[in-house]
Amino acid sequence: MGGFITFEGIEGSGKSTHMGLLALHLKDAKIPAVITQEPSGTAIGRKIGDILFNRSHQGMFAETELLLFCAARAQHVREIILPALEADKYVVCDRFSDATFAYQACGRGLDAAFIKTMNDYCAPGLKPDLTLLFDLQVETGLQRAAGRDAKLADPAAADRFEREKIDFHHRVRDGYERLRQAEPERFRVIDASRTVELVAADVRRLVMDFIKNGKRSGR
Ligand SMILES: Nc1ncnc2c1ncn2[C@@H]1O[C@H](COP(=O)(O)OP(=O)(O)O)[C@@H](O)[C@H]1O
Ligand SMILES: [Mg+2]
Predict the structure, then answer these.
(1) Which of 65, 72, 100, 163 has the fewest CB atoms within 10 Å distance of its CB?
(2) Where do the domains of the chain lie?
(3) Which ligand is located closest to the Cα atom of residue 133?
């Protein structure tokens, strides 16, 4: 029982939207699940997230960014994820170690081997059983993210990632595709260009299949 499911994909691909919808579905179905996200899944992680996403921190170096995300993950894994899995719950997490590879290795150009070592250090022996990759054209994702930000109290709320040049986002998307090719049995690609309803139906089907059939990869 229990299992670890992650949502990955570029900015604006719909991860948070579908986390919310899936959470409602799992609650209705009385499936014991913890819905969480990185880096803000813990109180300490929220403080780290405030540093990472603060718009005045434009001068943050890639190395600093990597270590902050990893610090948040080290806390999140120990405080939230492992205890929930040990209690036989499902954990659904918005972004995890794959994002560090896609953003900090492929996007920022930091050393991929070092990032693997860091990911393993932060989450020893823990790997998602199922990863849903929300795939979408970079331009569409950024447009959607900009539309989301415009509804916030501060309409200029784009963070350092959303402000990156388009090439950065292409490298991130390509990074996710490389991860998928390396582990096709763990990943399921979702065509996130469709309506929320169609995407939600896919998410529900894939997650419910996983729950019925047990875990996919070793943990
Ligand atoms: N399938 C969709 N079609 C149109 N807009 C969408 C779709 N999915 C999400 N959105 C909108 O796009 C924006 C970004 O979605 P969000 O879930 O915040 O993405 P992410 O968490 O992946 O960055 C939100 O305003 C959301 O309402
Ligand atoms: Mg989100």
Answers:
(1) 163
(2) 3-213
(3) 1
Bridge partners for 5 per DSSP: 92, 130
pLDDT tens figures, 152-208: 767 566 788 888 999 999 999 999 999 999 999 999 999 999 999 999 999 999 999
What is the Rg, in whole angstroms, of the alpha carbon atoms belonging to the chain?
A: 16
Q: Hey, is 184 helix, strand or coil?
A: coil
pLDDT 10s digits, 75-86 = 999 999 999 999
Rounded to whole angstroms, how far apart are CA atoms 130 and 3?
Answer: 8
Give the count of alpha carbons within 13 A of 98, CB side only. Answer: 31
Cα 201 to middle of ligand 2, angstroms? 19
Question: Which residue type occupies 119?
Answer: N
pLDDT digits (tens, 9 = 90+) for 100-148: 999 999 999 999 999 999 999 999 999 999 999 999 999 999 999 999 9
Q: Closest Cα to atom 12, ligand 1: which residue? A: 144
Choose which CATH entry (3.40.50.300, 3.30.9.10, 3.40.50.1000, 3.50.50.60) describes domain 3-213.
3.40.50.300
CB atoms within 5 A of ion ligand 2 belong to: 15-16
40 CA → ligand 2 middle, Å: 11
